[in-house]
Specification:
The structure is a homodimer. By secondary structure, chain A is α/β, with parallel strands linked by helices. The first copy, chain A, has two domains: about 260 residues, TIM Barrel, CATH 3.20.20; about 100 residues, no CATH class. The first copy, chain A, contains 15 helices and 16 strands. In chain A, the strands form four sheets. An eight-stranded parallel barrel of chain A has the order 4-5-6-10-11-12-13-14, surrounded by seven helices. In chain A, strands 1-2-3 form a three-stranded antiparallel beta sheet. In chain A, strands 7-8-9 form a three-stranded antiparallel beta sheet. Chain A is globular. The two termini of chain A are about 40 Å apart. Chains A and B meet through helix 3, helix 13 and helix 14 of A and helix 3, helix 13 and helix 14 of B.
Chain lengths: ~375, ~375
Amino acid sequence: MAAVSGEARAGVLKTPHGEVETPTFMPVGTRGSVRGLSPAELRAAGAGVVLGNTYHLYLRPGTGVIREAGGLHAFTGWDGPMLTDSGGYQVFSLSRIRRLSEEGVEFTSVYDGSVHSFTPELVTKAQEEIGADIAMVLDECPPADAPYDYHADSMRRTARWAARCKAVHDRRDQALFGIVQGGLFADLRAESLRRTVETGFDGYAIGGLSVGESREEMLEVLGGVAPELPEEKPRYFMGIGDPIGVLQVIALGVDMFDCVLPTRLARHGAALTSRGKINLKNARYRTDFEPLEEGCPCEACSGYSRAYLAHLVREGELLGARLLSLHNVTFLGRLCSEARQHIVCGDYESWMSHRIELYASGEARGVLE
Amino acid sequence: MAAVSGEARAGVLKTPHGEVETPTFMPVGTRGSVRGLSPAELRAAGAGVVLGNTYHLYLRPGTGVIREAGGLHAFTGWDGPMLTDSGGYQVFSLSRIRRLSEEGVEFTSVYDGSVHSFTPELVTKAQEEIGADIAMVLDECPPADAPYDYHADSMRRTARWAARCKAVHDRRDQALFGIVQGGLFADLRAESLRRTVETGFDGYAIGGLSVGESREEMLEVLGGVAPELPEEKPRYFMGIGDPIGVLQVIALGVDMFDCVLPTRLARHGAALTSRGKINLKNARYRTDFEPLEEGCPCEACSGYSRAYLAHLVREGELLGARLLSLHNVTFLGRLCSEARQHIVCGDYESWMSHRIELYASGEARGVLE
């Protein structure tokens, strides 16, 4: 670890496709493309690790096609670090489950209703074929409000699945991360952590949060887990991308996090700024000829006015979603980079409070929404 | 004129925002954006002149906003040559006409049904506000199958409208082009040409073709008009973008042409290649790891395989439409540039026959569709 400030950590993630300074926000390229952005633009936006979703890639175009292409790096043209999830989250959130057993999970495809089975062994091998730098174990992610017994059984099965993933994983140039589950129950989280760390992985994710619980509950659970993880291994919080949340999980010692939020917001015409999220469909932006965010080096902020971006968004022009995606990914990249500087300087907490206050100020003053 | 080969011409179009070698294909940025492409990409694709549609820009965001932004160049970030149509074509093809009179045309907006009137004076001033390098006169574009008397009346009214446009046009840094109408009737075309040239414009467009008539009829009418236009003035064929058609109108002495085809095809997953148009949704491309077109310098052809592009297209990823748009615009730009070389060499006709044969060969051999 390069530096710590409270629980917050500044480090360097080393992968076969390059090193990434942490904390780092990882944009999501669900189907082998971060919506609307080219690899060169992701690079320019400061993206370190890019995510792919095994669930989607397994179904379309199929891992066979990706293997034939020489892996997901060659297929997509992104030559930087890459992480694939195991598909577990998508199976449980997008598909109809036909059967869930010790062996694995049988589900119907969200694309065409065809029936498929994921086992720990299958998703591990699929991720080896896809060839990302970091693969994830198969886990079940139960709803936050599922009962205690359900969470307990599920977490223990996830722990057994993780061990099976590790047993068959033999791609030396690919890291494998375990996932801590257990819902909002402190004892289950502690047990999950202990079991996952005992199995032993190259890094540890915290899953099953940001799935419907309150932000306070989420932070409480995370605060109980993250600092207990092995200090020398990367810590990945699955699924957070709002600027305040990002700063809060960094404060608790998270190194990596991902979310579709910045690109999804962009497609709906919203942009992240230091003074809050702004909705470019708001009438006031029709004649606002200022850049989106003063000082932002992204293409959207250097070549265009808010008025033009607002026009593109209103008319549903592809360029609008694309420029806003570029900006939102750049915004989160810069936020992480600034966070890192303040961790190194040792004043992360006070800087974070200032940034959160500033971010919230837009809305509070009625100037931005 | 730099060179001629038969009726085909190689020239240079000079505008306040730069010079463009002709013949030149002009991509269409209907609403102030060529679907999915940034100005830098248009530049890289070899685009010379970019089109804007006055009808759309007048209604959204409104010419007032564009004037406030400092004109369409400043608003959109495209600093090269730009042409706006008068909106006539869109009024007659997209809107419900409430009243058509000597004064002008009253219509309902395609966006919200609101009522607007276009007169020659209004569209001329609107185009001055938009500030393109080249503006067009207001014309009526009747359906190809309208009766003779309708075409005659319409063409004469268009000629009178053109004179009114010229009378109020006073932006010195903006060229104004007249439009020859007259449907498929040789005598009406001749009269339209005579009247339009008598009024006198900086360039001449041939309108009212590619609107439902056969390709043979179109070429016959064009062959009667284009060579009769003033030799020293640019000749603009409104609305053609298929590679064979482009080569055929160049052969008849056209210097400029526009069409939404290359970007529309791209959004539907089709790419233009030397050996014909290919539909990337076809199953054979799922595992075709060759580039779209060998030797093409565009981003789609240098960074990605057909298999990846096919995947993006099938999944409706924004990047797919964008990369194919970039390729199709690049393809037409290169085709025009090659055409120019062969006009200069004096072997345009034989080169064109070869290219048309090659383009048609894909489909004939059952290799491409």
